[in-house]
Amino acid sequence: MSKMSKTNAMRLLDREKIQYDITSYETGDGLVDGISCAHKLGVDPREVYKTLVLKANNGEFFVGIIPVNTELDLKAMAAAAQVKSIQPIPLKELKPLTGYERGGCSPIGMKKQLSTIVDSAALSEERIYVSAGRIGTQVHLSPRDLIDMTRATTANISKQEEDHEGSYGDHT
After folding, report:
1. pLDDT (tens place) for every residue of the chain, 172 residues total
2. CB of 113 closer than 8 Å to CB of 99
3. Which among 172, 30, 17, 13 is positioned nearest to 108, based on CA atoms?
4. Beta-bridge partner residues of 62
5. Is 124 in contact with 158 (CB distance < 8 Å)?
């Protein structure tokens, strides 16, 4: 692979001396959703995590990190965030808030540190993939390192995609 420029997420991981691998995939087909990413990487979708940005009824912003083959359970996320209700932010607010665009939103290195909750399923994986902050580029790292790096908590915040009521799918 040719040398690529580091993203802000990679620079922060380097600064903290956190071990990670960089993996890239082709994006020319315009498919930037998590399932497509997993297929292009040739890995189980349970190992690839998507970053969802949400706003609570009290105006506070949160990040939910869940496997790409699941949907965010909004009620479980609100309970984990200790708020009454929570909803995804409109797509137009994503880049101004985080510095990242849809399909390349990393939980690491956002413009502002947001309260982050990682789905508990990550704890059963040795390593997971998350966006490196650029469409088509993922970092592969220990879930514990991701949790430490983002100062996250863990909770059961996802459910399988066939359970659609009160859930939120592929935002970023």
Report:
1. 445 689 999 999 999 999 999 999 888 777 778 888 888 899 999 999 999 999 999 999 999 999 999 999 999 999 999 999 999 999 999 999 999 998 899 999 999 999 999 999 999 999 999 999 999 999 999 999 999 999 999 999 999 875 444 444 444 4
2. no
3. 13
4. 54, 115
5. no
